[in-house]
Amino acid sequence: MRARLTGARGGALTAAAETIDTPSPDRVPPACRHFGACGGCALQHWAPGPYRDWKAGRLREALARAGFPDPPVAATVAVAPGARMRMDLALRRLGGQLRLGLHRARAAEVIDLAECTVLHPDLVALLPGLRALAGGLAALRREGAAVANRLDRGIDLLLRTDAALTLADRRRLAAFAEVAGLVRLSWARGDADPEPVAARLPPELTLAGVKVRPAPGAFLQAAATGAIQDAVRAAFPDRLPRRARIVELYAGIGTLSFVLAPLAPVAAYESDPAAVAALRQAAAAAGLAGRVRAEARDLTRRPLSPAELQAEAVVLDPPEAGAAAQLPALAAASPKLVVYVSCNPATLSRDTSMLAGAGYRVAAATPIDQFLWSARVESVTVFRRDAVGG
Question: Reduced to 3 DSSP states, what percent helix, strand and coil does the chain have, rounded to the nearest 5?
């Protein structure tokens, strides 16, 4: 192989392959024409078996570094191509053209997407019309973004632009929502709060049988496979003690809250007020207000105390940066069961080293390939001090 040095990062040199003399037997033809340019998929050239083994190995190594030697890591749960239910794309004018897509790997350039093997077909089908729409908006002068979530009855689209909408822009957006069959189309200038432009149908997403109405552009699970929910539920017995309670950290809109609610009352904490509002509304509408209590709280600035974490179990699903501010109190509280949902093996390792020091063991660890063909590893790891039951 011949490689070209491209720079340095994290104390190491980076390089790009220019020629391959002898291909690995694990090398396969990439599935997408944009492979190599688009920064979304870096590993499409790797055969499925070795690729999934590598992801499981990353989780195993992370837990071993945290102080859990030889953890029981399951085989990687595979997510099929075309299952991604959320897209977050860049918009950029370049000359007289509008580019819509993802950034080139480690670069600002936007790769104009003609296809995507990861996205759900409904999202891919939206791309040509969305490109034409954005290209005709006076509110898009240089750059913006398009965030789309595929909900129960269609696509919920949020457009962000770098200028204000004109009256003609608003008419164009409303007409596009109708033609494209969107459930809702919202707009925001820059990082401002979104405002609805067209709402055709209730923007609902069913989570464990409960209908939730997420805010425009809400952060949702990448793929609606249920694999994370299943792995979290499998950590619990069929019944908990009568007075048991569950504390859920970084609850979002309730992806796990409504899975946990049949087991015991859930105290759910989330920093995003819009997500908390959606969670509360859904719980009330489903008659679960007494089982799911949602509170807005920034767990980095105001982590829960050990007293507040006294519970039969604590479930946490932090962002990529992890939960370093919250883990000391969690380790001190010593609940019987901790279920950590992670999208970053590095922060998982850092955080759970505190659990190793507090006497926990890994009871189960499941890698989940939600971010197909990327280096990211989603996982659900179950930590126990002793058996949960009663």
Answer: 25, 30, 45
Residue 207 contacts residue 275 (beta carbons within 8 Å): no
- pLDDT tier at 1, thresholds 50, 70, 90: low
Which residues, including other chains, have CB under 8 Å from residue 238's CB and lie 6 or more apart? none
Token pair belonging to 242: 């009568």
Each domain of the chain, given as residue ranges in start order, spans: 51-79+225-384, 86-206
Helix (H) or strand (E) holding 144: strand 143-151
Q: What is the mean pLDDT of residues 188-201?
A: 96
- pLDDT of 137 strictly over 80: yes
2 class by beta-carbon count within 10 Å (0-12 exposed, 13-18 middle, 19+ buried): exposed
What SS3 string covers 69-93?
CCCCECCCECCCCCCECEEEEEEEE
What residues act catalytically?
A: 343
Query: What percent of the chain has a predicted confidence (pLDDT) above 90?
Result: 83
What b-and-e string marks burial along 203-213, b requiring 16 or more CB atoms within 10 Å of the CB?
bbbebbebbbb
Sign of CA dihedral 381, 79, 209, 287: positive
* pLDDT tens profile 223-244: 877 999 999 999 999 999 999 9
Domain 51-79+225-384 and domain 86-206 have a common topology: no
Residue with tokens 């990327």: 374
pLDDT of residue 296: 98
Six-digit token string for 186: 């919202």
* 246-281 confidence digits (pLDDT tens): 999 999 999 999 999 999 999 999 999 999 999 999
CATH class held by domain 51-79+225-384: alpha beta
Right CATH for 86-206 from 3.30.360.10, 3.30.300.20, 2.40.50.140, 2.40.50.1070: 2.40.50.1070
The pLDDT of residue 135 is 95
How far apart, in Å, are the Cα atoms of 200 and each of 33, 174, 180?
A: 35, 10, 11
